[in-house]
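User: Please predict the structure of the protein below. I'd like the answer in structure-token form so I can feed it into my own downstream comparison script.

Assistant: Understood. Taking the following sequence of 466 residues as input:
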Amino acid sequence: MPKKTIIPNRTPMPEQPPDERVCNFQEVTLGYTAEQAMMEASRCLNCARPNCMKGCPVNVDIPGFLRLVEAGDFMGAAHLIKQTNSLPAITGRVCPQEVQCEGSCSLSKKCDSVAIGRIERFVADWEASQGQIEVPQLPPPTGKRVAVVGSGPAGLTVAADLARQGHQVTIFEALHEAGGVLVYGIPEFRLPKDIVKREVDYVCSLGVEIKKDFIVGTTATVDELLEEYDAVFLGTGAGLPWFLGIPGENLGGVYSSNEYLTRANLMKAYRFPEYDTPIARGRRVVTIGGGNTAMDAARTALRLGAEESIIVYRRSRSEMPARAEEIHHAEKEGVKFHLLTTPVAFHGRDGRLEELECLQNQLGEPDASGRRRPVPIEGSNFRIKADVAIVAIGQSPSPLVSQTTSDLQTTRNGVVVVDSTTMKTSKKGVFAGGDVITGGATVILAMGQAKVAAEAINEYLKTGEW
């Protein structure tokens, strides 16, 4: 067999020009054509020991689906991906592939890694465009019933996997739309909501029922669900925002990222007054934080008409936890960065925000995260004018479920304690996964934990052993 010619550079993905996309909420990246997807798939080395699969939390057969795409068998690729990943159109868009499958790609040692995420997105979108989304044949019903609390990526994944085992699954969602953080947290220009609905509909096609506007902890408790269901999975996410605890944080114009993005995304505030949810459209918007949520908020502010959108982050760019692609897009769209900067107070007049006071930092020794600790420089105070500020420094699980559930062990931050090998909690019959056990993390990590939980739940339902 002749030696394969290595193409060193990945196939670029078309995207909206920055000066156009900041004026709309349409998707920034436009996706591959069939020819581009086949070209990019042909770069795969077909390694005997594919490291890319080791980097995938949901164990997608990456070399297998790439070979099918290279051969033009897009439907076969879609079916192969969905054997282990029920949400490929979502993960292909928001998964941090650069530190997972693509970061483990053997080609990346000398060249650009294969654009696995972009090809996965193409395959999922192509399947949908054909109107032939195939539902796998399901086994006979087992008679076992599982309640899933939350319809985010963890809840949807565990529900799909358990439905494929023949169990009857009901998802309980507190909001009026299914999708969890996929619908309230990630902007339309990064993850269109019709894509989320399409993936949710696929999970429902497996026989999963979704009950919306059902708040577990209020409408019913976990203990009450256990009277009706054989097992419960907690996938409630992390919806309790963190704040800075500095003076002036109660001024008008200061938002948590949760509220700001929920208004813009789930409640469609960017289409006000067509949708009746207002949102502050500041001229100078400051977003505090350096993760993907901060990038989402800062980029949303531009699309809502901000003349200036500024990121304030206490470390340097190299320590930013946001995806490199999201930082790049933010910069191209005109977001400004104040790095090595720590907020110390909000200042305002007549109850409204006018300025953010900050200190400059220098980097010290690494902290527990492995990143260098920001050390404030005494006397370096300065102020940034702003009429809207968005605090995007992290979040914790809501205490509602833990406070209304007996025998459920949590940490001081409200994170549910689990056995990492089975996702079992301290309460018999109750499992958990996703941000409720990690705090804010990634979509794909939540899905990986949900798959582990699904295996353990299936075993528990078969044996009754805890």
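That's the full token string. The radius of gyration is 23 Å.
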